[in-house]
Amino acid sequence: MAKLQSTFKNMFLSLFVISLVAAVLLAQVNKMTAGPIAAAKTLKLENAIKEVVPEFDNNPVEEAYKIPAPDGDSLLVYPAKKGDEIVGFAVNTYSNNGFSGNIQLMVGFDMEDKIVNYAVLSHSETPGLGSKMNEWFRNTAKPNQVVIGRNLSEGNLSVSKDGGQIDAITASTITSRAFLEAINRAYATYKASDIGSGATGDNQTNNKTGKGEKTNE
Description:
Layout: H1 2-52, E1 65-68, E2 74-82, E3 85-98, E4 101-110, E5 115-122, H2 133-136, H3 173-192, H4 201-209, E6 213-214
Antiparallel strand pairs: 1-2, 1-6, 2-3, 3-4, 4-5
């Protein structure tokens, strides 16, 4: 019996040591990769902002702030400036109504309420179908499906099947509706915040500390 107890004790100690070493190694790997992962995430965000707004010379990520959306949520807004002049805004928006759930977009607006461009940040839509939204809505060869240059002050965007202006992705109407919902949410938030007025200086500061909550995210 003593030999059996000794064997069990040795097995327990061995498993404990192995688990401890594995935990320490995992913690070290996480520590080593946290920096590069964060840097890659920031770079992706910066590139998305550059893609969707007019040329700027400030740091929109550092000047980002949250503003409340009409539906009770809040969205991150990245102001693009040239000197002291605001030239546009990038809005991090979303829809939870995609065919496979959440769709995340970065949508850029100029100071005339027109869509400058968009970038798809993440989605789980069907490859070869819903995933076509990456390029579908900016294919200038087919103007009826393009959202770039659309002035949303003239009304929300919707798919032609619903009586709207935009041709849906073939066999992916649900994805298309969700995509346009995300864009409409971005614009509604952008306009409701009064940041589209081109205010600078004290007025812009008031927007950040009043309707908008400044953030470093």
